[in-house]
Write a structure and sequence with these properties.
Length: 408
């Protein structure tokens, strides 16, 4: 049975997702063509093909979302049915095995230096290593919880894969430009000699923009400056979390008035985090160099961060809309920003100490890397415990009375 009532939420969502599919397929095609050109030119082509697969995979996911949103737009009754997340515990062992052997096989292909081999297998293996852990973490967190109606489930996922990243990228770019402009103004007014020196350095680099050795030799004194490090870490540990934790669950802010329980907000929040993690991690893993295994392994671990923090935000948003508990929303936002900030600070710190030898500070690696790495491990374990405990708590909250979904 179909309804003739115009449903503007699904119409607007479908328009956004359709534009997103077109854009992603065009980008995927561009990277694919560039990869083929590089392959026949016998230069590194794996990174470009990984990017093509990443954008293409995102586009295919959006096509699935479009189908379910289209059902709602055209008035199909099935659009209101719950979506049963097909998760089972055996998938954890199977998924872990696939990820482990994918990293081994991909790592061999990456270090072998065989251009066509990396081009052929690294794109698919990257999808396995990134997408499977995200699926497992979301499945564990959402297992047994209410996800209805299914059209909204896929609308939230699709918007979190398109509109939310676009907004966050724009805001983070604006923030970075403001920080950069502020730094330039400060140097020009407070330290004109240093400003002139850096200007001369930039002119020299403009002659050889691809000379990485010249870049490191020139900027080593500045990159090891504590104030420069503090500004960089401050940006990724404070500004980025403040923006991302507010806008990752953008779809929940839009659909907040239709949520029926805090548990539903928790699930859809995790879904927002999973979608963003897929977008971010796949694109950040488009590297076919010998460091491929290390890069994808590190990116695979960020999925639990985005899913848990967005789940907390979803719970807070639903609590604010349904129960008017704005204090809980503020607490959830503060907790999510804190977790994200500490994680980014530790990960960014590892990146800095990893460059220690190149910028004349080799002692940093042994002095700071073990503590920073242990911090990430402890946080990952802690967030997994929080995920499982939150799932059990939400099940108990839903058990007394399953609320029927409101009209959408």
């Amino acid at each position: 049975m179909q309804s003739n009532k115009t449903h503007w939420a699904s119409i607007l969502t479908l328009a956004v997702l359709s534009f997103g599919v077109l854009f992603l397929f065009l980008v995927a095609a561009a990277f694919g063509v560039a990869s083929l050109i590089s392959l026949f030119a016998e230069v590194s082509a794996a990174g470009e093909m990984i990017a093509a697969f990443a954008f293409g995979f995102d586009a295919l996911l959006l096509l699935v979302c479009i189908w379910f949103v289209y059902q709602k737009m055209t008035g199909w009754d099935v659009a209101e049915l719950p979506f049963i997340v097909p998760f089972a515990w055996w998938q954890v062992a199977a998924g872990a095995g696939v990820v482990f052997f994918s990293i081994l096989a991909g790592g061999f292909a990456a270090v072998s230096g065989i251009n066509w081999l990396g081009w052929l297998i690294l794109p698919l293996l990257t999808l396995f290593v990134i997408a499977i852990p995200i699926w497992l973490v979301f499945g564990i967190g959402s297992n047994g919880l209410d996800t209805r109606p299914r059209w909204r489930f896929f609308a939230v996922f699709g918007l979190s894969l398109t509109l939310a990243p676009a907004v966050m990228i724009a805001l983070e770019l604006m923030a970075a430009i403001m920080v950069l402009v502020g730094g330039v103004v400060y140097l020009a007014s407070a330290q004109p000699d240093l400003f002139l020196e850096i200007s001369n350095v930039m002119e020299r680099l403009a002659v050889q923009p691809e000379n990485q050795e010249l870049f490191l030799q020139t900027f080593a004194p500045y990159l090891s400056n504590p104030w420069v490090i503090a500004v960089g870490i401050g940006y990724i540990a404070i500004i980025v979390p403040l923006i991302e934790e507010l806008f990752k669950p953008l779809a929940l802010w839009l659909f907040g008035g239709k949520l029926t329980s805090p548990a539903q907000g928790f699930v859809l929040g995790m879904l927002s985090g999973a979608a963003f993690s897929i977008f971010e991690s796949l694109n950040a893993s488009a590297d076919g160099s010998a460091a491929w295994a290390l890069i994808v392994s590190a990116r695979a671990g960020t999925g639990i961060l985005h899913i848990v923090t967005s789940g907390l935000m979803g719970w807070g948003i639903a609590s604010a809309f349904i129960e008017k508990r704005y204090g809980r929303l503020a607490a959830c936002y503060g907790t999510a920003v804190l977790l994200h900030g500490v994680w980014n600070a530790a990960a960014g710190g590892l990146g800095v100490v990893g460059m220690g030898e190149m910028i004349g500070r080799p002692e940093w690696l042994f002095a700071f890397a073990p503590a920073l790495f242990c911090c990430l491990i402890v946080m990952g374990i802690g967030m997994f415990v929080v995920l499982v405990a939150s799932n059990r708590k939400m099940k108990k909250l839903e058990a007394p009375s399953q609320v029927e979904p409101s009209a959408t």
